[in-house]
Design brief:
With 115 residues, this protein is mainly β. The protein has strands at residues 14-15, 26-32, 41-46, 51-57, 61-72, 75-78, 82-85, 89-94, 99-104, 110-111. It has a domain at 28-76 and 84-104: Jelly Rolls (Sandwich). Strands 1, 2, 3, 5, 6, 7 and 9 form a seven-stranded antiparallel sheet that branches. Strands 8-4-10 form a three-stranded antiparallel sheet, with no helix packed on it.
């Protein structure tokens, strides 16, 4: 059982780095890796004013707000809110307050608007 538990308090936040994508103020904590070495489950922390560009989710996504608020397609999600986006749902993410989000993203996103 111990091999399947992640103590997120002992994992350091790492700056999110994606080639060609402006990710200043965004940090990630991977929770689980798939067979290809990609983390489909992760925590994302966005500092006040940070944003992630317009993108597509070919296989959908699940998001849970742990702290703060974020804005997705004009909707403000608050602590405790859950969002499921179906396959091929397109959106951006921004925060005015800062936030910590849990994500389950089964397949890599496609960036549609490089910033």
């Amino acid at each position: 059982m111990e091999d399947y538990i992640v103590n997120t308090n002992s994992v350091a936040w790492k700056p999110l780095k994606e080639e060609g994508v402006y990710t200043k103020g965004i940090y990630v904590k991977p929770l689980r890796y798939d067979e290809s070495g990609r983390p489909p489950s992760f925590l994302l922390k966005l500092e006040k004013g940070a944003s992630y560009p317009y993108h597509n989710h070919p296989a959908g996504e699940e998001l849970f707000v742990l702290e703060g608020t974020c804005i997705i397609e004009g909707a403000t999600l608050k602590k405790g809110n859950y969002l499921y986006t179906p396959p091929n749902f397109k959106h951006s993410v921004k925060t005015e307050t800062g936030c910590v989000l849990y994500f389950l993203v089964p397949e890599e996103v496609e960036i549609l608007n490089y910033v």
